[in-house]
Amino acid sequence: MADGVIHSSHWGAFRARVENGRFVEAMPFEADADPAGLLENMPGAVHAENRVKRPAVRRGWLEGRSRGEAPRGHDEFVEVDWDTAIDLVAREIERVHDAYGPAAVYGGSYGWASAGRFHHAQTHLKRFLAATGGFTDSAGTYSHAASSFILPHVIGYDANVADSHTWAEVAENTQTWLMLGGVPARSMQVESGGMGSHRGAPGLAQVARAGVRAISVNPIGGETVDHGNLEWLPIRPGTDTALLLGIARTLDAEGLADRAFLDAHTVGYDRFASYLRGDSDGVEKTAEWAECITGVPADTIRALARDLASTRSLITATWSLQRAEHGEQPHWLTVAVAAMLGGIGRPGEGFAIGFGSEDGIGSNRQPFPVPQAPKLRNPLAGTEIPVARFVDALETPGAEYDFNGERRTYPDLRLVYWAGGNPFHHHQDLHRMERAWQKPETVIVQDPWWTPTAKRADIVLPATTSLERDDIGAKSNDTWIIAMKRAIEPQGEALDDQEILRRVAARLGIEEAFDAGATLRSAYELSRARAAERGIEMPGFDAFWERGYVRLPAAPTRSPMAALVAGTPLPTPSGRIEIFSDTIDAFGYDDCLGHPAWFDKHEDAVGAAYPLRLVSHQPTTRLHSQMDVGDYSRSGKVAGREACRIHPDDAGARGIATGDVVRLFNDRGACLAGAVVTSDVSPGVIALPTGAWLDVDGETGLERHGNPNVLTADRGTSKLAQGPTAQTARVDVERYASEPPRVEAFDLPAFATR
Ligand SMILES: Nc1nc2c(c(=O)[nH]1)N[C@H]1C(S)=C(S)[C@@H](COP(=O)(O)OP(=O)(O)OC[C@H]3O[C@@H](n4cnc5c(=O)[nH]c(N)nc54)[C@H](O)[C@@H]3O)O[C@H]1N2
Ligand SMILES: Nc1nc2c(c(=O)[nH]1)N[C@H]1C(S)=C(S)[C@@H](COP(=O)(O)OP(=O)(O)OC[C@H]3O[C@@H](n4cnc5c(=O)[nH]c(N)nc54)[C@H](O)[C@@H]3O)O[C@H]1N2
Ligand SMILES: [Mo]
Fold first, then answer.
1. How far is CA 261 from the centre of its chain?
2. Do strands 669-677 and 643-646 pair parallel, antiparallel, or not at all (unpaired)?
3. What are the strands, taking DSSP E only, across 29-76?
4. What is the pLDDT of residues 408-426, one digit of tens each?
5. CA-to-CA distance for 89 and 443, rounded, in angstroms?
6. Cα distance between residue 504 and residue 502, in whole Å
7. Which sequence spans correspond to the domains of the chain?
8. How far apart are CA 577 and CA 151, in angstroms?
9. How many Cβ atoms are within 10 Å of 667's Cβ, its own excluded?
10. Which atom of ligand 1 lies at the shortest distance from residue 617's CA?
11. Domain spanning 56-140+373-467+494-509: which CATH class is it, in words?
């Protein structure tokens, strides 16, 4: 067995080599079939200069609770001891509760934090805030909000988190695999909660060996590993809906739709077919029509429709497709077109949602809950704001808005509390957010690092990284549970999130309600008891801890679609797949109809002013913004900034060469990036991954490090899901002729002495 303390991360299990109290190397876990390069970020980041070492309070807030003069992000910090910090937090929560009530506290606190399931920052924060009497929470995710709200109307469950096809089922059964968004090697390095061994790359190789024909529809080539049977079909970002409509109209017009399946298992096909013919809007959704929107040749679309109909076919769709305006449509249509093809319910046929977006896709979920931190019900449940509408809420308290058939009202938020997320990475239109962020009276952030969000907080509380505490790494679709053993001492004065909140709870006299005796051991034993009920044996906690992991049997497939074709109705109003949904129709929305449809995009209204389509996909060298300061992340930068990929034609027309510093811009903002000229991206497309730490020049507003979210639009997908639309935006780019400014993203904030 390798030496080093066993541990885990969202990008895989590893062993931590420690020398003289320092974590010096994350060595891949010996059982991992495909370890991720992201491990290389860890030692440098964990010991980085920009760790938060002591609790710190923004000076203007501390001295007079000023807002205007030295706004958040441009003020000095005063370091304080833990007692003082805990006291300030407790008193401020009390004050806001007394003055405005619990709904004035925003604890949506979206973010991935660390893989450890017990020390899950967000869970502890939400349990703490629930114990105070409640808080305003968030609904949905940045990952797949649009899909998670539309699919329950269509199929009765959220296929993003439920079982789909396994790799083996695809390898054994599928003949034609249409991959919308591909199956990027990068995405499958990561799974929330981690994994004992990566399954994505071996799974894809197994499918390739079986000779399955795979067509990756993607504005960018080379994202999916080509094992010999891969075709790249370039498409304009945000237009998969039109492609699927063109395929659907072809199937319908050529009599290739499976009427028997549609009659038996779906409702509303005829109304959808009428839309395809153009009966209501005068526009027939022909392959030629789709070509104009997607850039995919009409003949290719028609040939694809015929191939899908004449072979055992599978359509998969990544989450990227739905992180866009009207993002509900492409996933709804993926289901609808798969229904027309008739293979739904058979292994390796039909559809799979989110396939290729994380490593665990293609593996079944365990039939029992893996260890996790205990939760407490929020007394204000039912008042959540859609996660990506946070800035709307700050800007327009009291305003009404539509959300999935409800009319809700934005609360008047006065205190924002974040633990385990980085909103100045994950949100869109960050300049707009920066303005709205000045409105609350207090912002509290728990994070191990001086992130852009921490620098814009009033009270910053240093959290440990997972390496500094014992935890358990687990994910329901994995067959491993990993003991995450403490490898090093807490850095600086950092405390575990649970301990920080326990201290605040103690100050507020609610310690018992918050903590409820939760320990690592109790979380594990609870999971073990639930596993036993399902006949799955796990060792006791001590044996697990000593060995360092548990291996579980692979979970059996539980496919609601297989059940449907075998006679078990879906939990939809009709019991069938809803190609037309009376429920959605009755909402009366102009941006999400009773059937899937194409909508023109607001973003395209700028036309020629911003000719390029930005794709801000996930980064290869890190998880979101996490450990951007680490070696691996930095190794991918160009000219010290995030690398942006551009086609030779677009680069040539602008005099841009690989290695140049370029400026991407639109009406919302501008950022600098390092150019990589490559024909991997389609002409007219520019790719800049998300996650470079935000670094805005206070005077000019120029972002210096390559954060695409100064360019993206903060606009909901539709009234239905109100999901984020981060994936694409209209921009232009130019060579940056001036002397490039220094990147200050990893600098410490200014400190004042008290
Ligand atoms: N333009 C664009 N924007 C996007 C996306 C995109 O594709 N394009 N993707 C979106 C998606 S899908 C997502 S999921 C979001 C991700 O957004 P986030 O989840 O907010 O991003 P992370 O960088 O993972 O932020 C996690 C934060 O938790 C901190 N942290 C880690 N461990 C701990 C801990 O133990 N305790 C505490 N207190 N903090 C900890 C990290 O330092 C980091 O600051 O971004 C979204 N934004
Ligand atoms: N290494 C790494 N892996 C990750 C993450 C990370 O930060 N780093 N983040 C994880 C998280 S939180 C999530 S939610 C998932 C996200 O998973 P996804 O949303 O699937 O990931 P993306 O990288 O945004 O995009 C996937 C692919 O879709 C393509 N694409 C973009 N726009 C379009 C479009 O309009 N149409 C089509 N057909 N293709 C398009 C992109 O070029 C890219 O190749 O990834 C997870 N995996
Ligand atoms: Mo995500």
1. 34
2. parallel
3. 56-58
4. 999 999 999 999 999 999 9
5. 10
6. 5
7. 56-140+373-467+494-509, 145-363+569-587, 602-735
8. 10
9. 12
10. 7
11. alpha beta
| Residue ranges in the chain modelled with pLDDT below 50 | 1-2
Instruction: Region of 721 please: left (phi>0), alpha (psi -120 to 50) or beta.
Output: alpha
Q: Which of 717, 679, 745 is nearest to 143 (CA)?
A: 717
| 275 assigned to active site | no
Of 490, 487, 480, which is closest to residue 549 (Cα–Cα)? 480
DSSP 8-class letter at 297: -
Classified by CATH at the fold level, domain 145-363+569-587 comes out as: Dimethylsulfoxide Reductase; domain 2 (3.40.228)
Cα separation of 133 and 145, whole Å? 27
Tell me what the pLDDT averaged over the chain comes to: 96
Rg over alpha carbons for the chain, rounded to the nearest Å, is 25
Phi, psi angle pair for 597, to nearest 5° = -155, 165
| CATH among 3.30.2350.10, 2.40.40.20, 2.70.70.10, 2.40.50.870 for 602-735 | 2.40.40.20
Print burial letters for 567-584: b (CB count within 10 Å at least 16), e (below 16). Answer: eeebebebebbbbbbebb
Ligand 3 center–CA 143 separation, angstroms: 3
Note if 11 is an active site residue: no
Pocket of ligand 2 (CB under 6 A): 143, 180-182, 184, 186-187, 189-190, 217-220, 223, 235, 237-238, 240, 318-321, 357-358, 615, 617-620, 623-624, 727
- Token pair in block for residue 602: 């607001």
Q: Can you tell me which residue has the tokens 């639930």?
A: 530
The residue annotated as part of the active site, out of 11, 61, 106, 112, is 112
What pLDDT is recorded for position 420? 98
- CA angle 512–515–519, rounded 5-degree value: 135
pLDDT at position 1 is 40
pLDDT tens for 660-679 read 999 999 999 999 999 999 99
Give the per-residue pLDDT at 41. 98
**489-500 per-position pLDDT tens digit:** 999 999 999 999
